[in-house]
Amino acid sequence: MGWTTVAFSDKAIGTNHVLPTAGAGRYTGGLSVASFLKTVTWQRIDTDEGIRMIAPHVVTISQADLMPAHEATAAKRLKRLERPTRG
After folding, report:
1. What is the pLDDT of residue 16?
2. What is the pTM of this model?
3. Where does the signal sequence lie (predicted)?
4. Which has more pLDDT, 4 or 64?
5. Which residues make Cβ contacts (< 8 Å) with residue 44, sequence separation at least 6?
């Protein structure tokens, strides 16, 4: 109906008319609570099969990228799976 105003959004409804500048409007919206939150990601492999599937690729890519420490972390996990388990 067109009864809302900018004041409604700024002071009560929650949306905001503060828009991005310097061309950022091409990839982001206006200011919101999300603008002040930090996104955190994480990952987990729960099975030996997961390590066996992923680690060899990590080793290969790390070698190509000349990142020996990354290569070592994956290779060590593979090697740990080769050890006999104690019963």
Report:
1. 63
2. 0.57
3. none
4. 64
5. none
For residues 46 and 73, is the Cβ–Cβ distance under 8 A? no
List, in sequence order, the alpha helices (H) in 1-87. 6-8, 48-64, 68-82
Q: Pick from 59, 76, 11, 27: which is nearest to 19 by CA?
A: 27
| Contact between 13 and 4 (Cβ < 8 Å) | yes
Q: Show the tokens assigned to 44.
A: 């987990």
pLDDT tens readout for residues 15-66: 666 777 888 878 887 777 777 889 999 999 999 999 999 999 999 999 999 9
Interaxial angle between packed helices 48-64 and 68-82, expressed in degrees from 0 to 180 and rounded to the nearest 10: 150
